[in-house]
Design a protein that fits this description.
The chain is an alpha+beta fold. The chain has two domains: about 110 residues, Butyryl-CoA Dehydrogenase, subunit A, domain 2, CATH 2.40.110.10; about 180 residues, Up-down Bundle (Butyryl-CoA Dehydrogenase, subunit A, domain 3). About 45% of the residues lie in helices and about 15% in strands. It contains eleven helices and nine strands. The strands form three sheets. Strands 1-2-6-5 form a four-stranded antiparallel beta sheet, with no helix packed on it. A three-stranded antiparallel beta sheet has the order 3-4-7. The chain has a two-stranded antiparallel ribbon with strand order 8-9. A hairpin with a 5-residue loop joins strand 8 and strand 9. The protein is flat and about 75 Å long. It starts with 20 loop residues before the first strand and ends in a 6-residue tail after the last helix.
């Protein structure tokens, strides 16, 4: 993903330990040192390290792109606290779907030349994100975004149904807002397929769609907010799996956990799932990842403007107003 979040006011040369860099060149390869954040690294066989910085010409030791096996000598991973391994009745999503993030440390790791894609070329490194190579990763991320949004729409609808509020105008408006956002993202995703470009190698590259990532960063928090507004306190006042196993407590739960046309246990599972993907540590992490995994949200929104051609619209306005200058 990116470099560790340390002092962001410093350039790589001011704090070299923050960024992955070349510390030695050999006849058979290079030696690198530094660290990177990563997702799924603990489940991976190999990792790709590519430039994520806007480098100056003198920062060439940081302008590298390579692949490395996860068992390479000197490479270690420090994982964050996991959300998995808990009772699925209490944590239905995080118990089985936790994406473990880790800090990958390169302590003088040797990379053979055949694994080096880019070496000490800051100008080319800066051109990486404008080359189109990231279109595929953005496209893959978009498919996950759509699925997540559809899941959030569905669980919000199920909360409203089992709470007996599905016909309330304000609830319908919130569900409609969520579906509108989802439809807009899906339309952008499908347009990227329709406008795919055939590369010189014969592959099809999805069309660039910076507005999709920008829009996602703008609405990701709103999605969670809408689920919370629909679910209200039913997301908080929830018993544990142990409570359901206690006959005396279960007798009360069978009465007070009922929902509209739903069994107490079904109602419990729906509410627990909603809390797990929205309010608990797992859900909060998912929301932050959705908003931040492509970089600074402000940069994403700015890129949407930079990639939008408004020249025809400006010409129409200039002609209509009979302007002398070009704006």
């Amino acid at each position: 993903l990116h470099d560790p979040c340390m002092d962001k006011s410093l350039r790589p040369t001011d704090d070299p330990d923050r960024c992955v860099r070349v510390v030695k060149e050999r006849d058979d390869g290079i030696v690198v040192r530094g660290a990177r954040f990563n997702t799924f690294g603990l489940f991976s066989n190999e990792i790709v390290i590519c430039p994520t910085y806007g480098f100056k010409e003198e920062e060439e030791e940081f302008a590298i792109w390579f692949t490395v096996p996860c068992n390479a000598p000197g490479l270690s991973q420090i994982a964050r606290e996991g959300y998995g391994g808990r009772n699925p009745l209490d944590h239905p999503a995080s118990a089985v779907y936790d994406e473990v993030d880790s800090l990958i440390v390169f302590d003088d790791v040797f990379i053979p030349w055949e694994r080096v894609i880019l070496y000490r070329e800051p100008i080319k490194a800066n051109q990486l994100f404008r080359s189109g190579v990231m279109h595929w990763s953005s496209f893959a991320g978009g498919s996950l975004t759509i699925l997540r949004m559809e899941i959030l729409c569905a669980i919000a609808e199920m909360l409203a149904t089992t709470s007996g509020v599905i016909k309330r105008p304000e609830v319908i408006a919130k569900l409609g807002e969520m579906c509108t956002y989802t439809g807009a993202i899906k339309s952008s995703f499908e347009l990227a397929m329709i406008k795919a470009i055939k590369t010189p190698n014969g592959n099809y590259k999805p069309a660039n769609a910076p507005e999709r990532r920008a829009f996602t960063t703008m609405i990701s928090e709103r999605f969670i907010e809408l689920v919370e507004h629909i679910g209200t306190s039913s997301l908080i006042f929830l018993p544990t799996a142990e409570d359901w196993e206690n006959p005396e407590i279960k007798e009360y739960l069978d009465v007070y956990m009922r929902g509209k046309d739903s069994s107490p246990m079904d109602r419990h599972k729906i509410c627990k799932f909603a809390w797990d993907i929205c309010g608990d540590g797992f859900g909060s992490r998912q929301q932050m990842y959705e908003r931040l995994h492509s970089g600074d949200p402000n940069v994403m929104v700015a890129n949407a403007w930079r990639n939008t051609d408004l020249s025809n619209a400006r010409k129409l306005i200039s002609s209509f107003l009979d302007l002398d200058g070009n704006y």
